[in-house]
């Protein structure tokens, strides 16, 4: 007889492992199935985020930023570095150790919360409202049964037609995080989050980086003023970004990759790179789930179809994270995982898509929440704007990083905050104040009246809120 569970979660990424832990906290007998393997074929829960995404990329971003500071910025602080060298092997080893710590941390959390973990690929066998049989294919094969099933199977990197990933010359995010020597010339197709972050890492370490982007505008989802400021700063750093590009043939040779493309003027171009990172989006991962076997509905783009509560068309089957609609963000997946566990318990889990923060961990960082100025204009919403540059912030001057600004957008009549946009140092941390404020429907005046520590980067947030009413004090 198969093992019986109240809740079975398929996928151990941010959405899946959090859903399993929350379900267990709520008293459900819970199992989580995950197939990620480490170098020794052992379990490596955490999904793309922990293994080849959020966590390792931040490790390399931090390491590469230290390297660049040592080579260029420390002298301003009176710190002299002689004989600076790069031990890329050690840098990659540090990244791997951080991944391992996170993998082991999740396994510990499963044990702490009494979540039964199965290492292998989970797929439907059969089932109905009374329960579903799930096959776990790992080192051995077994079948378990769950009353409720939560699907959190994540996403995969999208390939260019005719140019599949070999992770040696043509790289997805996985290969981009494991290049064993700094390429002299690195090409990046796609100026999104992954492309800019990985391009930034290797530029700092010595690569000549060229980013080819199909869209005519840089960072089209970002507030236009912020995107323009970021574009100027990246260009100053030496990141070459070409917009309005139409990619043609991509040919991998023995040691390099040739990319043929048409630039924004219509002229044919050809570039040869030592490595090519392709970051043109991600596709939902339903491979091997046997969705068709149980009649699980997918939408026209291959995502698992869900309603506003993350319910699928099958009774007691739920889905969260990258495999469903909405932004492909780890923290969005986590919030959906918690909400689904609470809904299974009869509670009222809730995710507010309007206050999900976005972050690009370049240097400077870019972070935002809410609507952009162009969105407000398109919707015909009357608004007020206020901004404050880090150039006028005392803590930013002391840090030696005065690039960028904080920008507030507020309703012209009610002063309710409609969006906050930041490009500058520690934007990923500063944006949380804006998320809290918007969740409580605060006004710009509310933030302007709150005492902020001095000197701190957060004072730029207060000053931008003051600027909405044209009464900034330090600029």
UniProtKB/TrEMBL annotation:
It comes from the Bacteria. It catalyses: N(6)-[(R)-dihydrolipoyl]-L-lysyl-[protein] + NAD(+) = N(6)-[(R)-lipoyl]-L-lysyl-[protein] + NADH + H(+). It is found in: Cytoplasm. Its EC number is 1.8.1.4. Keywords: Cytoplasm, FAD, Flavoprotein, NAD, Oxidoreductase, Redox-active center. Its cofactor is FAD. InterPro entries: Class-I_Pyr_Nuc-Dis_Oxidored, FAD/NAD-bd_sf, FAD/NAD-binding_dom, FAD/NAD-linked_Rdtase_dimer_sf, Lipoamide_DH, Pyr_nuc-diS_OxRdtase, Pyr_nucl-diS_OxRdtase_dimer. Coiled coil: none annotated. Binds 1 FAD per subunit. GO terms for molecular function: dihydrolipoyl dehydrogenase (NADH) activity. SUPFAM superfamilies: FAD/NAD(P)-binding domain, FAD/NAD-linked reductases, dimerisation (C-terminal) domain. Its main location: cytoplasm. The active site is a redox-active disulfide bond. NCBIfam families: lipoamide_DH. Belongs to the class-I pyridine nucleotide-disulfide oxidoreductase family. This is Dihydrolipoyl dehydrogenase. It comes from Paraherbaspirillum soli. The gene is lpdA.
